[in-house]
Amino acid sequence: MAVETGPRVPDPSLRPAHEVLAELGTDPERGLSGAEAAARLARYGPNELRPVPPVPLWRRLLARFRDPLVTLLLVAIVVSLGAWAVEGARGLPVDALVIAAVVLLNAVLGLVQEVRAEDAVAALAELTAASSTVLRDGRLTTVPSAELVPGDLLVLAEGDAVGADARLLSAAALRVQEASLTGESEAELKDPAVLAAPAVLGDRTDMVYRGTAVAQGVGRAVVTGTGPATEMGAIADMLERTRAEETPLQKEIAAVSRSLGLLVVAVAVVVMVAVVLVHGVSGPGDLVTVLLLGVSLAVAAVPEGLPAILSLVLALGVRAMARRNAVLKDLHSVEALGAASVICSDKTGTLTRNEMTLTRVVTASGTAALSGTGYGPEGGARVVSGAHAPVLVEARAVLVGGARANNAQLDGSGGQWTAQGDPTEAAFLAALPKLPGAADAAAGFGRLAEVPFTSERRMMSVVDEETGTGEHRLFTKGAPDELLARCSGVLVGDAVEPLDAARRAAAAGAAEALSAEAFRVLAVAARCLPGTGEEPAAGTGVLDVPAGDGLEHDLVWLGAVGIIDPPREEAGAAVARARAAGVRTVMITGDHPATAGRIAADLGIAAPGGPVLTGAQLDALTDEELVAAARGTAVFARVAPAHKLRIVAALQADGHVVAMTGDGVNDAPALKAADIGVAMGITGTEVTKQAGRMVLGDDDYATIVAAVHQGRVVFDNIEKFLRYLLSSNIGEVATVFLGVVLAGVLGLTGAGDGTVALPLLATQILWINLVTDSGPALAMGVDPELDDVMARPPRRPGDRILDRAMWLRVGRVGLVMAGAALLTLDVLLPGGLVAGHESLELARTASFTTLVLAQLFNALNSRSGTSSAFHRLFTNRWLWAALLLGAGLQVLVVHLPPLQAAFGTRPLEPAHWVLAVGAASLVLWTEELAKLLRRVRAREPAAGC
Q1: Which end of the chain is more exposed for a tag (fewer CB within 10 A), N or C?
Q2: Three-state helix/strand/coil letters over 147-162
Q3: Which string of DSSP letters, residue by residue, matches 527-576?
Q4: DSSP conformational letter for 907
Q5: pLDDT tens digits for 261-285?
């Protein structure tokens, strides 16, 4: 049953807000009920654009037969059937049937891998789905944006992504970035006043739209359209679906596959020509045999499944990170994670617990200390300096002012107190019950208007009306230096006295002293608004920033508070672990330099008394000077979001791969510029989450380090299966090529009884490809950490995964495999270097088995480039399952009569099995010797030291 697209609301931009609310059946004070929201979601469907219809599985399966090499193989099957018919159609066309079965099975396995990778990516997309804040049942709650319904009350704040089309109800300095819809680069100032006439999309100032972002201010709006009924949905069919840019790793592997494909096709042609020249062709059967050999060699030797295996391994690795609260938004960000050399982290909430606790209040008469931690009401207040009575009066005024100039909420449901909104603001609310009378005093005011906080102003103000007296009062909260500059009086006891130079210096000194103790310091001031026309009209709820600046003068200094956010217990260990892995930690914060330096020293980021570069000092540096300064600076304080962008650029110019954390809307450019933009999942805005490549579910620095560790493990595993696949494929090609070229030396020329004698049959080559490629490669993709990946420096940005050393290694291993297989063939065949006495069919079976077992031994080799294969031998159960399955299938193909007929094998005696296992194990022993020499060389001191 089709769902409706939503209620028909005639152009809401031309209708008063109360009419739109009435038509949608929304209570402006409580929003929708939970039951009504669920009913509308069922009726109108999720707030999603129409998805692209999925490609049916049968069409995706057919698409796998369009590969040029597979097409060649299909042509070869047809030729084989033709030759079988020409020769009288005696028996079954075994070669054609077997090759067709192998091709079909390979296609099915490839499709399964592709579907699994897509499922993993889809699961990740769900983890990073956008969310919106709504008012339901009279309470603020966060819901997935996909669950927004017409009539929902959206609560918008700076950094939010607008989840649906909505009619504004109220706005305070609300500016929305609408470039995604209108192309306008400047954020649009919004006003809930109804439009006088129809307007184009970019001029509808009383509307907000899905896909746009709040650049500044706050507001509320009622949802008028969701899903296809939004403006974004209306143009969705015209939106261009851009092709994702390939990452360096994808490009490198694609180039290797193409180059290897061309090389192997050339080798296959040479092999076919060599077979014809060496053995001759006596009939159509021989011609088909040679053709099938060449095509099968080309198909088997090219790792056509490599992209699918790569995507699946990356997806599994990224899902493992997600289980540890690090959600990567795209699979190939693992590349950058594995190479990260600098982590630029904010302090609050990332290196610290983000449970802001107000523990100190400093006023003109003295200091009060508050006990308790977190957001719960437990705790009390005591005077630690100054006269008891005036200090408590002044402290109460400070807490009341901070609680009024505040947009946070506390939630104690479930016995666990949590903060909705800014944690620093929540600290004021949590402190109120600790000082008798403060909570009641704060409840005695009602808000009239707000001047919102901006990073440029570094403060916010509200205009309140006192219940009973009707007096209007301005409460302001913000940076001490900003507020002191706007104050002309100071509260002493219950009286206001002039703020002379001595008192101004004392207030500034008290704030500095709190900062030196690693407190986050906020000041609170107030002002009574006389009936001079300055105050806003009751109920407007809106003051833009210029109007607010007109009120924020001649303030009364109430005092300053010290708010502590204790370091996370695990952060210090994570910083040390990152340092051991060659990854620098750089703290970038807007806090006071003394606070930043103290926390950095406590966590081991910087030495006590180490250099701290401030935003003002950074502005005085040229780009080149900043590059030099960043090399020796681990702490940046009092920085604005624009400074983060310069710091990222300076570190990247110095050759670093940079991870940068951020939570505010202004952090988005720096997150996009960084190699790994890390958005905070708890405190981060939706805009920041969209800009970042990774989202932290717990806002914890240790999670970033754990993600770097997991990224290195995943990258190590990619190297493992690349070593395995490439060396195994080279071994197959070398076995056939050298077997044909050295046919006379090996005794093959006289062993054919008038037919073409080959070291391997086409069906056997395809069997090797089927049995030994995908299973072990996928198992290595989930291999547990074998070597300590955090004991080595990060990869350099220009390093190739397939470098000269790896090519030499895979080439050597491939030649050893070929040598082992051909040695087995020579030992059993009469007339070679070693005189044997077995038939060609049996010798070829033993050689075929040797090559299969050699590739299984090679899987153990490929787990590390330096550690012994016997190190942590049994830690990967999936690899052992793949190896045992491969060995078991090889036993069946050698001894099961139907498979013997299909693959041209003969049963082997125990002595033959011993010979095959022994020859195959040469791959293991030669590589063990090479690794031993490598480890010895690594331990030798450099010459001259």
Answers
A1: N
A2: HCCCCCEEEEECCCEC
A3: EEE-SSS-SPPTT-----HHHHHHHSSSEEEEEEEEEE-PBPTTHHHHHH
A4: P
A5: 677 677 778 777 877 776 666 666 6
Between CA 421 and CA 407 the distance in angstroms is 7
Which amino acid, residue 79? V
**What is the model's pTM?**
0.68
Pairing of strands 131-136, 153-157: antiparallel
234: left (phi over 0), alpha (psi -120 to 50) or beta: alpha
Listed residue (394, 456, 405) closest to 428, CA to CA = 405
534's CB contacts (< 8 A; 6+ apart) are 550, 551
Q: How far apart are the C-alpha atoms of 561 and 490, rounded to whole Å?
A: 15
Is 464 among the catalytic positions?
no
From 870, 862, 912, 869, select the one nearest 891 (Cα to Cα): 912
- For the CA atoms of 833, 835, 836, 842, the dihedral, rounded to the nearest 10 degrees, stands at 30
Length of the chain counted residue by residue: 945
Q: Which of 399, 336, 368, 305 is nearest to 722 (CA)?
A: 305
Q: Find the helix packing angle between 774-781 and 94-127, rounded to 10°.
A: 20
Positive/negative CA dihedral, 408, 414, 417, 418: negative
Query: Who's near 712: CB < 8 A, 6+ residues apart?
Result: 337, 338, 581, 789, 790, 794
Phi-psi region of 735 (alpha: psi -120 to 50; beta: other; left: phi over 0): alpha
Active-site choice (346, 591, 700, 783): 346
- Of 655, 486, 531, the C-alpha closest to 584 is 655
Helix (H, G, I), strand (E, B) or coil at 404: helix
Which helix H or strand E contains 244, and what residues bound it?
none
Packing angle of the helix pair 571-580, 593-603 (nearest 10 deg): 70
Token pair, residue 527, equals 């002002």
Cα distances (angstroms) measured from residue 697 to each of 336, 404, 701, 702, 826: 19, 30, 11, 12, 61
Residue 495 in 3-state DSSP?
strand
Q: Are 301 and 774 in contact (CB under 8 A)?
A: no
User: What's the 3-state SS for 602-658?
Assistant: HHCCCCCCCCEEEHHHHHCCCHHHHHHHHHCCCEEECCCHHHHHHHHHHHHHCCCCE
How is residue 88 written in tokens?
């009288």
Between CA 647 and CA 619 the distance in angstroms is 11
How does pLDDT run across 210-227, given as a tens digit for each residue?
878 888 889 999 999 988
The 3-state secondary structure of 341-391 reads CEEEECCCCCCECCCCEEEEEECCCEEEEECCCCCCCCCCEEEEEECHHHH
Residue pLDDT, tens place only, 750-802? 555 545 567 888 788 878 877 887 788 888 888 888 888 888 888 877 677 77
**Dihedral over Cα of 645, 651, 652, 654: its sign:** positive
